[in-house]
Amino acid sequence: MKAIVKPTNLLEGTINALSSKNYTTRYLLIGALAEGTSTIYYPAHSEDSDAMRRCIRDLGAIVEEDEEKMTIQGFGRNPRDVSELNVGNAGAVLRFLMSVAAFCPKVTFINAYPDSLGKRPHNDLIDALKQMGVEVDDNQGKLPITIGKGKLHGGKIQVSGNVSSQFLSSLLFMTPLLDEDSEIEVLHDLKSKVIVGQTLEVIAQAGIQIEASEDLMHYTIRGGQKYQPQKYVVQGDYPGSAAILAAAAVTQSDVKILRLEENSKQGEKAVVDVLRAMGVNLTHENGVVHVKGNQQLKAGEFDGDHFTDGVLAMVAAAVFAEGTSRFYNVENLRYKECDRITDFVNELRKAGADVEERQSEIIIHGRPQGVTGGVEINAHYDHRVIMALTIVGLRSEKGLTINDAHHVAKSYPHYFEHLISLGAQIEFVE
């Protein structure tokens, strides 16, 4: 599906933030790893959360759902014997379940998206699993990957954190269920520490005890623990809301987004501060972010590692700021659904933006007058790229046509619907 995004001067109205994809996938997993029935209220419905739901069902969890909640009867550390799992294009789901699969006799994770997830590396997690006695047919670190139980054990484990924090999170979910105690040492750097904080938060809610060093580089995990069935409430999602907020910031707007908690542990909460620093007129009170946009943005420099999944939306806003903006410490964006630096920068240039890239930076020379647009650009199968390019299209002179726009459903199925409800002019063709 192609999305034809037309120039739009005014956005106005109120929407509810979608439920957090990151929290939903984590709650689904710990519900499956518990022995008993857990309840999740307001779960996200997206391709990623659907992939986790499908896979834990395949592994033996009983999942029932209605409009507002979902119940999960878990399998603990005894998943069903399955030969294949299909995680779709969901990298976090794949990586979390690669460790859980070590409790199965033999599981192959198939390659359903060879041009996206199929290109992403998983070697660091595979190396850690092999240290634990897990048998892995690793296919040089890329899908399809087959994992067998082997002689699974705890002990001292080292895992690199300089590509993705998901490898560490995967081990943190699984190691408490082992018979032996474990120690995890993170090598090199650890990207997206805030997201590791989310993992630790939900694990603790399920009654699991993990001792973490202050810098999150070392962990002590007692073996023989059990996840307790609990009730969980999913909070509003900052990464998806970042794109709506950026769209409001670059237009004349009066937009409110509800269900965005001020004390959330989501790193992307920082986008509120980023937009403030760019001169956006906004308030954040009682879970409501209220933006009154006037198109007068100013450039800034920002450490993107603090809000990884909000970076592209903020870059899109910076395209229209006065001056030169820099988003640094973002190399891990290269290892997502696409290379979110090179691929995104190339599409921005097609639209008329003045942008540069470094290995771990995106530099934007703002054009407050707007960009020309009038071209057809590629989404690279990436939901964050789609959302960010839409923002640029709204402020372009001739609009933008975004190919494969349906992939926005990976995290935010109602993204275009929400924007249209606020007044955005967007049409669709097959």
The amount of helix comes to 25-40%
The proportion of residues in beta strands is 25-35%
Radius of gyration equals: 21 Å
For the biggest β-sheet, the strand order reads 24-25-1-26
Mean pLDDT: 96
Largest sheet: 4 strands, mixed
The strand count comes to 26
Intertermini distance: 5 Å
Q: Helical region count?
A: 12
- Contiguous low-pLDDT stretches (5 residues minimum) are none
Q: Structural class of the helices, strands and pairings?
A: alpha/beta
Considering the chains and any ligands shown, give keywords for the structure.
single chain; alpha/beta; four-stranded mixed β-sheet; 26 strands; 26% strand
Write up this protein.
The radius of gyration is 21 Å and the shape is globular. It has a four-stranded mixed sheet. Strands 2-15-17-16 form a four-stranded mixed sheet. Strands 4-5-3-14 form a four-stranded mixed sheet, with helices on one face. The chain has helices spanning 21-33, 47-58, 91-100, 123-131, 166-174, 193-205, 238-249, 270-277, 311-318, 342-351, 383-394, 415-421, and strands at 2-5, 10-16, 37-41, 62-65, 69-73, 84-85, 106-109, 135-137, 145-148, 155-161, 182-190, 210-212, 218-221, 231-233, 252-258, 281-285, 288-292, 297-298, 301-303, 321-322, 324-328, 354-358, 361-365, 375-377, 400-402, 426-429. With 430 residues, the protein is of the alpha/beta class. Helix 1 crosses helix 6 and helix 4 packs parallel to helix 5 (166-174).
